[in-house]
Amino acid sequence: MRRQSAFEELWIWERVGDRLPWYYAVATNRMPAKYRIAARVPVDVDLAADEKALWDAHDAATGVFLDFWGEIRGGERRIHDLPRADPSLLDLSAELARRMLRHCDFCRWNCGVDRVTGTKHGACQLGSVSRVSSYFHHMGEELVLRGTRGSGTIFFTSCNLRCVYCQNSDISHDKERGIPVTSRELAAMAWQLRMEGCHNINWVGGEPTIHLHTILAAILELASGPPLPEDLAYAEAARSDGFHAAREDLAVHEGELNAPMLWNSNFFMSPETMRLLRPLMDVWLPDFKFGNDRCAVFLSKTPWYWETVARNHKLVHDWGEDVVIRHLVMPEHVDCCTKPVFRWIAANMPRALVNVMDQYHPDSACDPSS
Length: 370
Fold this sequence. Notes:
This protein is α/β, with parallel strands linked by helices.
């Protein structure tokens, strides 16, 4: 008889377990993470084809993925009934993100700059290199995410919003902070965190959206096998805790690494980014910051906020995804932001879990010499 882990025995699951069924099943290794299914979905396209052909193939393969996912959830298939595909939907997703970097449209700004050449910069001010500020077992996230051994959090630098009250301004406003990472080194961080017992891999920042190309390439690496020792050694430069006790029994499903993917984002993303993430993310942790565009422009210099973020939240809901929404209550913005956001969630995502956050603490606006 299978013994329950401390994570499974947490009191919170009696209250919210039916709201996060897929994430819970993957985190406890009852089900394979989505990226493992995507690696077994074949695509009928040459990855050197033009971008439109790749998107058409991605749409078709996503339909196949959803069929496989439904069968696995329903117990009609097991992951090993499906052979590893070459090329797969996971390969295709990583290739499309790499192509998008040439005319960057990862987020709603749709800057269109060639971040590979790097002669011009968009809203995030980044080229093609991703930097990680830190990674660790995060014990400060929501209980369903931090569990008993932490959320495997990887903090990227820079952001596509300019919130004047930013809680992580040291990394969001400083794109040079941290260490540059390749997809292999990033995969090594994720592999290490999950093997040590973290309940998920938490892609966050700053903002992860602007690092989509590196993240999807890292997930592809993660699906391919363990990291090289030199990549693990390099990753240690960004490690910010001393947690190194390996717990392989908490990380494996049917003999393979099984890591739930968590997208922790401001949700100011393009439709294309949402399409790429759909077959790869197991749980979503979006912000819903502002109740109107006027406040979004005033507090974060961000136009088109409401239409973009509401659309992306609605997509996640309509897809039947597991989601926890965050809203930070700000002084003098209860009537204009908090109440409209909650009304919208109640009308459009009535079963979504919501974390009402109270840690408004705008350090970034203070005198740095004080």
